[in-house]
Fold these 4 entries.
Entry 1:
Amino acid sequence: MSIVPSLFGGRRSSVFDPFSLDVWDPFRDFPISSSSDVSRETSALVNARVDWKETPEAHVFKADLPGIKKEEVKVEVEDGNILQITGERNVEKEDKNDKWHRVERSSGKFTRRFRLPENAKMDRVKAAMENGVLTITVPKEEVKKPDIKSIEISG
């Protein structure tokens, strides 16, 4: 087993993916103890995990967004070939009488952007949300097979 994939966050890391616009965060797995807005935003961004697979018919994205309603998520196409997923996980309301022992769930805004290849049909993108999983399907253009015409050889 190679050490490189585990070093960069697992087998589905986008570090070497030319289509991904995400930047590798070397501090992704470090606990964030600060309660500042910046650390909460960073934490929420890191926790928006997305899988991208390509099938013969489409590019399929699956994002784990537990506790987020579909109204709180936006899926957009930017500049013709960039798929952008944005949203916000709101902070739970605090009561002055509450005593927090641990806060591990992240809150704040998140953004994920993916540059799609030229064969993606960006005008036919579909998105669905079920059980905290956002599924985005981007159909691909059919690959045209070249017309081959046999030529009879005389002689």
Entry 2:
Amino acid sequence: MNSGRGEESSMSVSSAYQVLDVMPDCTLSDLKAAFRTKVKQFHPDVSRTDDTMIRLVIQAYQVLSNLSKSEIIETECLDPFDAPECEAFDIFVNELLCVGKGCPYSCVQTAPHAFTFSSSTGTAHATSQRHGEDYQVQLAVGQCPRSCIHYVTPSQRLILEELLGSILNVPFDGSAETDLLYSLIVKAKYENNRYTKPKKKPDVSTKHVDWY
């Protein structure tokens, strides 16, 4: 398999194979199958834990496949902005709008367990996820005077974070990327509001019941 991105990531190639539980001589089909299996296993909606493992799985596949995070999500899954994969309980802070410590309704003060200030930009960003029913986080989102905090799905968040990072780290004009970021945020909000949970199939018993 091609592992040319190994030097661009903190994860080693050998570690990537271990995370995906595949051998170095695996085929591309084997790698894709292993990735999809791990995504299902460690998706936050399934494992009911934080997103640490799902991030490692995506990072491992990124190392071995030469794809970026957004390319992985777009090629291996449905577009999460067209078809959200779950309810939007993750948090994304649009740091391009955040005023940081000067905000009179600081999300960091309101919900310090979910937000902190970036040491490099001074703006707020989320430090933990899956706070959909957390009152303090809801209060922080509702009170934000710049409306820069958004509820998104895990896949949407990964793409938005990668796009935001490229905007903040590029010294030249990033107006095209900025426009894309805003359009994706608007699209995510619209589609997430339309999302409905899959209906659970009723349990059917095969046991015979003698009613008489």
Entry 3:
Amino acid sequence: MAVTVRKLAISHLVSLKKKAYIQVLRGSSSSSSRCSFSVGACQTGSSAYSDKSEDGGGVSHQEFQRWNNGGGTFHKSACIDPTALIEMGAIVHPKSVVGAYVHIGSGTVIGPSVTIGQLTKIGYNVALTNCTIGDSCVIHNGVCIGQDGFGFFVDEKGNMLKKPQMLNARIGNHVEIGANTCIDRGSWRDTLIGDHSKIDNLVQIGHNVVIGRSCMLCGQVGIAGSVTIGDYVTLGGRVAVRDHVSIVSKVRLAAISCVTKDIKEPGDYGGFPAVPICEWRRQVATQFQTSKKRVP
């Protein structure tokens, strides 16, 4: 009998704790909902946020609205064509321009004053700042364009100081950029990608780089700052190009090559440092024969 009474008392106590816990949850959820955005009156067919707080850039959250075609968010000062699709979770910041039939994927951030040409498709979780994108481009998932380049100097006291990175990145028409590629903004000239160029995944393009039209950059290519590349240039996988180097038009570089000085004649190149392909093949053959003779 005593055991039964004890069990009943314990079960009653547990039920009381559950009720108290549920009340605490309801109270916290109602208080958190009061802090979040609420949907206000519709303006030109879009829902406006009604939070009076401001972000770090001094832009009021109240100035952002819901885009009907896709459910994304845009600032009221942005100029967006009615045919553009902005998916849920994407955001377009102030004074940006989005052209006709542009598709912006979820999680993408279009920074202030960015221009996107018509018929361009942008994937998920893309970050665009300080840049212009041409017509009919394809920007795959995770691409970052327009962030600061890697530029520092040491002052007289030995401190590492950042060089100003104030210019833009400009992407031409019909350009395709693979997933997780990064293209830095310029410091003394705009970073430029020419029309019809194709860039693979995981490519790094440094500040002030100028790439001509119809170039092809394969995966994991790394181009240091202030490089100039002509038209119809192909860089194989994992090619590295040192800073301030120029490559003439119609050059092809074999995979894992490294360009350490200017290439002034069209043709095929390979090796580290990159040399004409015939010379590189002779080097490889000689090295192979030498190593073969050393084997006992």
Entry 4:
Amino acid sequence: MALAYLGSNKTNPTSPMSSPPQLILTQDQLKKIAAYKAVEFVESGMVLGLGTGSTAKHAIDRIGHLLSQGKLTNIIGIPTSTKTHEQASSLNIPLSDLDTHPVLDLAIDGADEVDPDMNLVKGRGGSLLREKMIEGCCKKFVVIVDETKLVDYVGGSGLALPVEVVPFCWKFTAKKLECMFEEAGCVAKLRVCCENGGPYVTDNGNYVVDLFLKKCIGDLRAAGDKMLRLAGVVEHGMFVDMATTLIVAGEFGVT
């Protein structure tokens, strides 16, 4: 596993060689820095997993730009969502699927959380199933985040750990999930659309139940296996031991 940090370094204001004060970067600018660094791993002729979300979007834009300039050639992308498919198509990135390319050279994607062991929470954008299918069969998986995504444990941000479930009797499934992690103070909530207040529907026609945790759930593999044994659960948003390289962009980089 590899870990890289990017960002600006503090300077000594009393030094005659000090650089002029640098502007504080926005979160989106930090994401863009990390995304562009990740694209440096891309080589001509590769089959790429194209992630979903605000950070991955920057990487896809960059890949499209390099293709248009002829600096990359013979790239094939496997999109992890309908939204990513639309973006990549608009940039004239050639696309395919896992049926045609069951092994990928590289995948680039963001993450909602990263713990100290490079385990991830993904899926707050709703694409966790396709992301896991595609990123689980690549030779290298580069994860790009800004420093706000770093947590002490999975669920440590207090934000959602997504679980994709079938619509049938979703309340039953949500209650089972909540009870499963009762000791971690779990609260399960159905994700709803901001537009109409109805259930959020994934690209696969399923619902998402978001788990909110107050404590660590312990062994992640055991917890994940337990969720997948529950009828009604399609997939969970923990990506355990999948990332091979992590790129973190922060206001003050650590090298």
